[in-house]
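Memo to structure team: turn this sequence into structure tokens by end of day. - J.P.
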Amino acid sequence: MAPSLPVCQHRPMSEPDQRLFFLLQRAAHQLRTAADRRMLAAAGITTAQLGALFAVRDEPGITQQRLARTLGLRESAVTGLIGRLTAAGLVTKRAHPREHRAVVLELTGDGAAALDAARPEVDRFNAEARALLGEDGFTRTAEAMRALAYWER
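Reply from structure team:
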């Protein structure tokens, strides 16, 4: 049985919680915690590292600056993230051919193997979310999250 969400004391029990920002934060924390545990067990990486590895695989030669934009992180956070990935042998850095202060990132064989090891767990996670939300709910939720992720205010 799934745990129930806390109910606001000032709202009738039949009225759904409409505090979208709170619910998004709570869901993100819940999902990240569960997914990190699963990714660590399956592939030895966190979800943040998984996202970075997918981005590096999808755009070989990506710079750290571009990776920060892709992941929606500060460059300082990406510097630490890439430091951990290079120390683990999952990504390599080399000098950018035209920008003397930039580096480009490449996925290593071990990085590709980590993505391969993570894939079944990613698929399982998505299947569980589809079962929870239904196919239409899953699709609509993904579309809504994409819209919110790239919302320009």
